[in-house]
Amino acid sequence: MSKVIVIGSGIVGSTIAYELSKYPDLDITLIDEKNPGTGATGAALGILMGIISHKTKGKAWRLREISLKRYDTLIPELETITGLEIPYNQQGIVKLLFSDDDLTKWENLAHIRSTQGYNLSIWSQEELRNRCPEINVSFLLGAVYSPCDRQINPTFLTKALVKGASLRGVKCIFGEKVVSLTTIGEGNNRYCNEVNLENRSLSADWVILATGLGTSSLIQSLGSNIAVKPVLGQALLVKHPRWQTPDNFSPVITGNDIHIVPMGNDELWLGATVEFPDNLDRLIPNEELLMNLQKKAIEFCPSLASAPIMLSWTGKRPRPEGKSAPIIEKLDNYHNIILATGHYRNGILLAPATALSVKELIDN
Which of 32, 186, 238, 339 is the most exposed place for a label (fewest CB within 10 A)? Predict the structure, then answer.
């Protein structure tokens, strides 16, 4: 059996471990110094924007389509195996259209999606008002509705993935830090044969780094200059017991990169800011940006003005520097080290397709 070590138990690493666990010729260990899903995964609203994105071909579209299709089978599969309930909103995404939006661009995208077997509906102002009465339509052209896009609770999902992987025989080591990788060989013919924890070492045939913001420090000693830097995000959880949902229709609503995400129990996430490090490489949450986010959300949905804030949330996302996100490839000069990292704002969306890509790299 090939010994596969997956480092990182966020949504990406946990999905990889779970999907690989179906292959009996792989002996899999999942390692993380923290509890599953407490890093960048916990800094996500779980919005799966695939069909409504303008990625229509190539790798960027292929990853999105594979993931969306897999999610619709993965969620019931995990719930059956683990007995856990995973909050999964299948009511789609409503994208608000403003006066300066190019309607032709969206009509073209809707046509492309129809040829690919997906539906995108362009709503008039009146239809948006009827379907989403909380929306202030007075300054809007209408909306684009994507019924095939999704939203999922990433923390619940990650816990289910880890439990499902464990039930399938994956060994899980949490609370222990990977301090280094032992390699042999030289030049472009190198190989990692051991993963070193603080108090022990594990032999490896394959090492998969789903390490997010921990990637750069781990591979720097291997001669790699790949940098994955943090980008801060903030969001607000509000309580809104009078949120109107005609016919129980409760999709994610998004506009100008402001998301309103129904979470059940009369709760809504309002998110999320995008904040880059300053000139001194510091990431300090900007309260003004958070308040502006709330202000914009209230412009879309005026009744949010009376919705009390239950929780303020801050988290970091891993963004590659000088490379496209995500990074799914073998580490240069190493035959058996696979990078599955730097997903930036699409880690939840692309996790299933990332796992499939990792399996293909192992097979090849």
Answer: 186
